[in-house]
Write a structure and sequence with these properties.
The protein is an alpha/beta fold. The protein has 2 domains: 72 residues, no CATH class; 159 residues, 3-Layer(aba) Sandwich (Rossmann fold). The chain has 9 helices and 9 strands. The strands form 2 sheets. A 6-stranded parallel β-sheet has the order 6-5-4-7-8-9, sandwiched between helices. Strand 4, helix 3 and strand 5 form a beta-alpha-beta unit. Helix 3 packs across helix 7 and helix 5 packs across helix 8. It is globular.
Length: 238
């Protein structure tokens, strides 16, 4: 049996019945796969060997396009999910507008609790419309903490758009290549505002799209599927 973990559960959080079930599954699995080096480190205390086999995406569904005429930041996560830290984006936005007065914030997804000055709510978009917004944006805002991987970050990079993130979870892994984004301190709106301003500057550089696409390419299904099949072969052979 191969056990694929899509999230992260530190050993200190594996308590009660759920914790016992998780520990049993970990010990009985032939291989345990996780989405990132961040998860690998966070779960090392279980004492179980694990492999990084990340989730993939079809990068061909996304492509760079002409940027919007004005500096545009896209938010494409659910404001209701606390770890996405929508409140940090709201707190950071006035500082971004002072640094880049004509910047616009586009909010895609569930209805936000508030829409700040200089922002528009686009509603829930279908896949094609969302891909178009990724391509037009100058930067994508991702202040999330404890991300096991970060699909929004990968979709943005696949669209050639830099990401403003924080030094938490797997986000620094995804933005490890120079010129693909900027990182602020987690839970720090002032630091995140600086990251957003830096990401907007990257969005103005024509070379950024190629760097972002290159960073996302290692998560394409054409790369991930052979890793998955190799794992199946290892397990069936043993």
């Amino acid at each position: 049996m191969i056990l694929k973990l899509t999230g992260v559960v530190p050993p200190t959080g594996a308590a009660g019945l759920d914790g016992r079930l998780l520990r049993s599954a970990l010990h009985h699995a032939a291989e345990v796969w996780v989405n990132s080096a961040y998860v690998l480190e966070a779960m090392a205390g279980f004492g179980i060997p694990m492999r990084v086999v990340p989730a993939g995406l079809q990068t061909s569904r996304f492509s760079p396009g002409p940027r919007a005429e004005r500096p545009t930041v896209l938010w494409a996560s659910s404001p209701a999910e606390r770890h996405k830290r929508f409140e940090d984006l709201l707190a950071a936005w006035p500082s971004v507008r002072r640094a880049v007065p004509d910047a616009e914030l586009l909010l895609a997804g569930g209805r936000p609790p508030t829409v700040p000055h200089g922002a528009r709510w686009l509603g829930v978009l279908d896949d094609e419309a969302l891909a178009g917004q990724y391509a037009r944006a100058w930067a994508v805002a991702m202040p999330s903490v404890h991300e096991a991987l970060g699909l929004v970050t990968l979709e943005a990079l696949s669209s050639g758009t830099p990401v403003a993130g924080v030094r938490s979870g797997a986000t620094p892994e995804l933005l490890a290549a120079e010129g693909t984004g900027a990182l602020g301190a987690p839970l720090d709106p002032g630091s995140f505002a600086e990251a957003l301003t830096s990401a907007l500057a990257l969005g103005a550089d024509p070379a950024t799209a190629g760097r972002c696409r290159s960073a996302a390419s290692r998560y394409d299904w054409s790369v991930i599927v052979p890793e998955v099949l190799a794992g199946y072969r290892r397990v069936t052979a043993s």
